[in-house]
Amino acid sequence: MDKEYLEAIAQAEANLNDIEERGEAAIGGDAIEFMKGFFTPEENAACDLRVAIMSEIVKARKEQGITQQRLEEISGIRQPVIARMEKGSVNTKIDTVVRVLAKLGKKLQVVDL
């Protein structure tokens, strides 16, 4: 399921990039503009940030060959929570994210833009 999820995310990103490149000529181009206008820039940025953080968690876990079950054992965060967090189906608390990242040898850092 993890592989399918990542492939779906990659395909969705490729589709969005294609639509943005073709603009008005793309089928659904108007829908993308509608979607961009539906949320505030802050909401879009927050969503992008959540996706980036969760993607980094999945990437780090897989690069280290750690299963969700093993991550539960070392982090104390239950595997179903980890699965929902990685899928983006929950709005994960920051302390949970920080605990998982720490066990993967990562840290969350705030930097000036």
How would you explain this protein's 3D organization?
The protein is an all-alpha fold. It has two domains: 1-38, no CATH class; 52-113, lambda repressor-like DNA-binding domains (434 Repressor (Amino-terminal Domain), Orthogonal Bundle). Helices cover 72% and strands 0% of the residues. It is built from six helices and no strands. Helix 4 crosses helix 5. The chain is globular and about 45 Å long.
Keywords:
mainly alpha, 434 Repressor (Amino-terminal Domain), about 110 residues, 2 domains, 6 helices, globular
What is the secondary structure topology, with strand pairs?
Elements: H1 2-22, H2 29-38, H3 41-63, H4 68-75, H5 79-87, H6 94-103
CATH homologous superfamily descriptor of the largest domain: lambda repressor-like DNA-binding domains
Number of helices: 6
Main beta sheet? none
- In whole angstroms, the N-to-C terminal distance is 35 Å
Structure summary:
By secondary structure, the chain is mainly alpha-helical. The protein has helices at 2-22, 29-38, 41-63, 68-75, 79-87, 94-103. The protein folds into 2 domains: 1-38, no CATH class; 52-113, Orthogonal Bundle (434 Repressor (Amino-terminal Domain)), CATH 1.10.260.
